[in-house]
Design brief:
With 651 residues, this protein is an alpha+beta fold. 46% of the residues lie in helices and 14% in strands. The protein contains 31 helices and 17 strands. It is globular and about 70 Å long.
Length: 651
């Protein structure tokens, strides 16, 4: 895992070598083990690499790396998990090929040298973002993995471009950057800024599964539309629909799921440095941890963090799971102040505004794990791949039960029911649980009820999906703005799949890529920790689409194949519990420990400095949240993350 940056510039008014070093030093946390650079002053191309040594710790793994033929120079960030298979293929095809070491980067570069990039990209099973310079054609190519696990930002004007794993180096390269108001609107709505857009008008993110070819002989300003896909989710969906006939019963589906997951976990356990796993005790992390321990000759290291607030504490359950699996378990309990101290670091860790509040516990577990390991496997993306989110079932039920009721009636129903505060709902629920004790395990009933009331006025499937995932129901940004949500039409216009599968598809290219994977990458890499996601293996993802939906959502049970795999290792009595997210009690903190900080950012003066923000609407929502009658912590947190980022930028 590493950090890459560089630029091409025909301007001669600066010390370009010094500029490159400054840009690269801003990525030191992503690769503290070694600095490398490639400079071609004649071609005016400058590339730098910060290395976090994971495979091939010797100089044979140093980058930027030149191919043996001398034609290609690569700066690579990530891991190619099937590199051993690719190496065997190369050795069989060209027995005279000699390798200096055993790094995946050298295998990748050799494969490109022999077969070309067009044939190489579809073969890669891994997470990556890289720049590849073709010295013969004086051309540079950027590529990003299928799901965008590894980031790549690109800036361009008429005379230059710059690229980087994060925004910091680009902010060093140029100060001619302006805030994208539409991106702020997207941040308020979704808690993230979707690719290819960024917080700046002049910078874009290379889309996952895309490549961008730039001819340096005839350079002109570049933009996101210049990139081309080498893989898209629709490829797996269409192939999956063709393959579904191969599964005739759910037992075969479970057996095959376990087989492909075992292979994925095995490949992600290849490392020359200490390795462990994040363990929350949920189905996904437990499944990955169980398969790791089953394939390890020693106790694997597992890491959990806990809170003294029982509503958010998963550590006790994780400890029980770890005990059954026999891992070397490490847990850390946090007080509010432990994480509140990190709030002020968020703009530097995430670079552009990012507002999933679970970023805080993710940062803390990353810091904790880094004390023991350099690589950690995670259970991320199991929900998107195997149908795990509650909104999938909720959305389908709402369509089925309320779709035929006139919109006007649903409007009245939703408005009437929402007058009862979340706190009142919780009180009623606590009384009901005395009569029906088995439902006492469900949490945050009041907030969930209010979210349900807000979606009753949906107009169609697209509108319902947006209501399910959006934080702000209406924009808090004034003036003319463009909707930047990941293009939803491909998924919702595709024939042969139902509403639930359309949501899963859209989550794969929207929420998963721009929120979940961004959150984990920036948090872990801020402490030089590499995280790996077995559920995003090429074969695992394709297999999941090969399965009929009724095998993933079986008799009302989400992630049915994963639950059955886990049941081989953990008694059902331990795992039978409601789904719980990886979050923190932000709502209460904003009313208490974080109130003074929030008030300063949400003051009329602070908001007034941004004329494109509807300050009256935001202040009103803040006042309602403080009363406790309604919880608007996520909407408020989105605004706070922008304002805090802006404060850091101006200072």
């Amino acid at each position: 895992m590493c950090g890459i940056t560089g630029f091409f510039s025909i301007k001669d008014n600066q010390d370009k070598k010094l500029l490159l070093e400054k840009m690269s030093s801003a990525l030191l946390h992503r690769g503290p083990d070694e600095f490398g650079q490639f400079i071609n002053q004649t071609k005016q191309l400058y590339i730098a690499h910060q290395r976090l040594s994971i495979l091939e710790l010797s100089e044979a793994g140093s980058q930027p790396m030149k191919s043996r033929c001398g034609r290609y120079i690569i700066a690579f960030n990530g891991e190619i998990y099937n590199f051993r298979d690719l190496r065997s293929e190369l050795e069989a095809y060209a027995p005279d090929v000699k390798f200096r070491g055993h790094s995946d980067t050298e295998v990748l570069l050799t494969y490109i040298s022999i077969f070309g990039l067009d044939k190489t990209l579809p073969k890669l099973n891994g997470m990556f973002a890289f720049s590849l310079y073709d010295s013969k054609l004086n051309k540079i190519i950027f590529a990003r993995d299928r799901f965008g696990e590894k980031p790549l930002y690109i800036y361009s004007d008429a005379n230059s471009f710059a690229f980087s794993s994060e925004l910091k180096p680009i902010e060093i390269f140029t100060q001619r950057l302006s805030i994208n108001h539409s991106a702020v609107d997207a941040l308020f709505r979704f808690s993230y800024i979707p690719a290819p857009f960024s917080i700046y008008n002049e910078v874009f993110k290379l889309l996952p599964g895309h490549r961008l070819d730039i001819d340096l002989n005839d350079f002109s300003k570049i933009d996101p539309t210049d990139s081309k896909p080498y893989w898209q989710v629709v490829d797996s969906v269409s192939l999956g629909l063709k393959n579904r006939s191969q599964f005739t019963n759910v037992r075969d589906a479970i057996t095959e799921t376990e087989s492909v997951l075992k292979k994925s976990v095995e490949q992600r356990m290849i490392s020359d440095v200490p390795l462990g796993a994040f363990l929350s005790g949920g189905i996904d992390s437990t499944c990955i941890t169980a398969l790791m321990q089953a394939q390890s000759s020693h106790k694997i290291k597992t890491f959990s963090i806990g809170f003294h607030d029982k509503q958010y504490n998963e550590a006790q359950h994780a400890k029980v799971v770890a005990g059954v699996l026999g891992t070397e378990h490490h847990e850390l309990y946090l007080n509010p102040n432990d994480m509140l101290d990190s709030v002020h670091e968020l703009p530097d860790i995430y670079d552009e505004p990012f507002a999933d509040s679970s970023q805080l516990p993710t940062i803390m577990v990353s810091r904790f794990a880094k004390k023991h390991v350099t690589v950690a496997l995670t259970g991320d993306s199991g929900d998107e791949v195997f149908c795990g989110y509650n909104r999938y079932r909720t959305g389908q039920k709402v369509v089925d039960k309320f779709g035929t009721i006139p919109l006007s009636i649903r409007n009245v129903l939703g408005n009437t029911l929402s007058r009862l505060s979340p706190t009142a709902h919780n009180r009623i629920f606590s009384i009901v649980t005395t009569l029906i004790p088995k439902i006492s395990k469900y949490k945050n009933i009041g907030d969930k009820a209010h979210k349900f009331y807000r979606i009753l006025d949906f107009k169609n499937e697209v509108d319902l999906y947006n209501k399910l995932i959006q934080t702000w129901p209406e924009t808090a940004v004034t003036g003319e703005i463009a909707g930047l949500a990941t293009d939803i039409q491909d998924a919702f216009n595709y024939a042969g799949i139902n509403f639930i599968e359309r949501m899963m598809w859209q989550d794969s290219i929207g929420y998963m890529q721009n929120d979940i994977l961004t959150k984990v990458d920036r948090a872990s890499m801020s402490v030089s920790l590499e995280t790996r996601v077995p559920f995003l293996d090429n074969h695992v993802y394709q297999h999941a689409w090969n399965l009929p939906l009724e095998y993933k959502l079986y008799n009302g049970q989400t992630k049915y194949p994963l639950r059955n795999i886990v049941s081989k290792y953990i008694p059902d009595s331990i795992m039978d519990r409601p789904k719980s997210g990886f979050g923190a009690p932000i709502g209460d903190w904003l009313r208490n420990e974080l109130r003074e900080w929030a008030e300063s950012l949400l003051s009329s003066e602070s908001l007034g400095a941004n004329p494109f923000i509807d300050s009256n609407k935001i202040r009103k929502l803040w006042r309602v949240h403080l009363t406790g009658k309604q919880n608007h912590q996520h909407a408020i947190w989105n605004v706070l993350m922008f304002l805090q980022w802006q404060t850091r930028r101006l200072n």
